[in-house]
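Give me the fold.
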Amino acid sequence: MYTIEMAYARMRELQDLANRSRAHQTAAASKRAAKKAAKKR
């Protein structure tokens, strides 16, 4: 049986993972965005 608690735990797990990867990618992403913005002009 799949309970609400299990679903909630899984959701929290995925959210933590997403937050971690976003924090890790922030620097690289901002560099990419700066490059793109420079190319557009």
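DSSP finds one helix and no strands in the chain.
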